[in-house]
């Protein structure tokens, strides 16, 4: 299998000056706690997240080996259980209709395509569950002025957008999923990504590479307006707060806070206070989003009613 992927050098050469993340009013916690939420992709609003198509071009012995390594006992049981729930039947009935031996035979001879009509929903759920338990995705955009994203992700312009330095070591990419962070721009396509497993010495590793470098970074072209960049990183249960995964906000990563055009006076004052009073945010600019007087456009300028001279002076230096 040939895996085409963007190198870290390519990614760095295409980086915008700033990457942004739209958040709801509750996103104030990032400033208060200096934490960045790391959500599971399973909860995203795109139903096609991590739902690849599967094809197989591999000898039966290789397929059997791959199956035995990735779908051992409990894995196969879970596939049957999930598929049975999807179809509204019992797992026993499904096993009777498609015995494990037949399941294995179809997989060995035809790959995933051989069982897709019977067990694909369950198999997809098992794959998704495994990913959601181990990996999180933080989504960014290079657009700070998107009317749609301010409306969808920032609570109808009542929330905020945070700006981050994409060249900060926080985004440093690795070569695989094992303990590394993967960072690059999303590719938009009309067709869903597919796994094509070819005979190789380590097919499991190639499968992981394909997941890492295609599935996480390919979305429908309907989402192209988001101009999204993604950071995929392994989860650490020690960083769990209120059943949500977070990572500590390192110094220098946050560069900008943009207050939504409909943000309350209370929220504007709170942001101004948090940024101006904490040395950790000394280089952070605070901006105000406002509707243009002439076009359907969001303009960015100094924070209105910033509350403190230090914050107002800092914001006025923005070139955005």
Short description:
By secondary structure, the protein is of the alpha+beta class.
State the separation between the terminal residues, measured CA to CA.
Answer: 44 Å
User: What percent of residues are in strands?
Assistant: 15-25%
Number of individual domains: 2
**Cross-sheet strand order for the largest sheet:** 1-5-13-14-15
Helix amount, in percent? 25-40%
Q: Characterize the overall form.
A: elongated
- Please tell me the overall pLDDT: 75
Give me the secondary-structure category. Answer: alpha+beta
| Contiguous helical run count | 11
The major sheet is characterized as: 5 strands, mixed
**Radius of gyration computed on alpha carbons:** 23 Å
Uncertain spans: 1-6, 55-60, 175-179, 197-206, 308-320
Label this structure with key terms.
11 helices; alpha+beta; disordered N terminus; 5-stranded mixed β-sheet; 320 residues
Architecture overview:
It is a single chain. This protein is α+β, with helices and mostly antiparallel strands. It folds into two domains: 8-46 and 134-192 and 220-316, no CATH class; 53-133, no CATH class. 35% of the residues lie in helices and 22% in strands. It has eleven helices and 15 strands. It has helices at residues 8-13, 29-33, 60-70, 73-87, 91-97, 100-110, 116-134, 147-153, 203-213, 265-277, 309-316, and strands at 19-23, 35-37, 53-57, 135-141, 160-164, 182-185, 187-189, 194-198, 218-220, 228-234, 240-241, 244-248, 254-259, 285-291, 298-302. Strand 13 (254-259), helix 10 (265-277) and strand 14 form a beta-alpha-beta unit. The longest helix has 19 residues, at 116-134. The protein starts with 7 loop residues before the first helix and ends with a helix. Residues 1-6, 55-60, 175-179, 197-206 and 308-320 have low confidence and may be disordered.
